Amino acid sequence: MNSEACSRVLGLDGYSKGWVAVLLDGDIHEISFCRDIAEALSTGFDRAAIDIPIGMADDGERTCDRLAREKLRPHSSRVFTGARRWLWLEFSDPDHANRDALLRGQKRVSRQLWHLGPKIMEVDTFLRANRSRDIRETHPELVFLRLNNGRPLPSKKTEAGIDLRSALLKREGIGEIDRWLTDARIGTGAKVDDVLDACAVAIAARDVAGCVPEGMPPRDAYGLPMQIWS
After folding, report:
1. How far is residue 95's CA from residue 116's CA, in Å, rounded to a whole number?
2. Is 35 a member of any domain?
3. Are 139 and 79 in contact (CB under 8 A)?
4. pLDDT tens digits, 140-192
5. Rounded-to-integer distance, Cα 6 and Cα 15, Å
6. Residue 178 lies in a domain
7. What are phi and psi of 144, to 5 degrees?
8. Given the DSSP bridges, would you call strands 207-208 and 4-5 parallel, antiparallel or unpaired?
9. SS (H, E, C) 68-93
10. CATH number, domain with residue 173
11. What pTM, to 2 d.p., does this model score?
């Protein structure tokens, strides 16, 4: 797929207290820490990318997740799978939700994905009310894999993984990354990898290079696309 460049873009990654938002607009690079998705997307933008499932199948099975996991081998587990609206609409406890999933002949949801539920539903509600805005699902690990010429990266929780991701971001022109990881981040509750991931998805929004699946995406029951961009 040909690269698709865009000028004023946002990259969003969720963290415990809200959303890390990275704005790239030519030479202007800014980071902010927002309470909710509406605040994070309140600034003007041409395109936004977000590290959260957009579009959900009733059984939790999405082609884009399977293809993303294949691309990330041997680190397939970095892509969480199985997001379903009914999990969080009908249940407040993961054990009860998983028992019901098994009764429906579906896979259980992981604890990691379960705890992302409030943010997934927050984004889902926003997107269904703002369909005309260009907001795309992105996975930062796919972006970093592309930036690293297809070579698998060490875990983002390790010093080597952090250093490599920081170097890749600097190569893409994000010169403020060191300051953002220290001065800007301290006291916000955001972790180092939250900032790194927000920068990566901002790059995906600015310089779209591909998506899985390619072409016209499948859509869920509410018409939202199930496609991951990188």
Report:
1. 15
2. yes
3. yes
4. 999 999 999 999 999 999 999 999 999 999 999 999 999 999 999 999 999 99
5. 26
6. yes
7. -65, -35
8. antiparallel
9. HHHHCCCCHHHCCCCCCHHHHHHCCC
10. 3.30.420
11. 0.92
Question: Can you give the residue range of the structural domain that contains 194?
Answer: 4-55+132-211
Per the rule left: phi > 0, alpha: psi between -120 and 50, beta: everything else, 221 is alpha
- With respect to residue 99, please indicate whether it lies within any of the assigned structural domains: no
Give the separation between CA 6 and CA 212, rounded to whole angstroms: 19
* Residue 119 resides in a domain: no
How is residue 47 written in tokens? 């395109």
Tokens linked to 87? 């999990």
Total domain count for the chain?
A: 1
Is the CB of residue 137 less than 8 Å from the CB of residue 227?
yes
| Omega within 30 of 0 (cis) for the link into 218 | no
Strand pairing class (8-15; 211-212): unpaired
Q: Could you give the C-alpha distances from 183 to 157, 173, 192, in angstroms and in order?
A: 19, 19, 12
| Both tokens assigned to 162 | 């952090």
67-72, long-range: CB within 8 Å, 24+ apart, which pairs? 67/212, 67/213, 67/228, 68/139, 68/142, 68/212, 68/228, 71/142, 71/145, 71/212, 72/141, 72/142, 72/145, 72/152
Which residues of the chain fall short of a pLDDT of 70? 1-6
Q: Are 4 and 230 in contact (CB under 8 A)?
A: no
**How many angstroms separate the CA atoms of 3 and 130, rounded?**
26
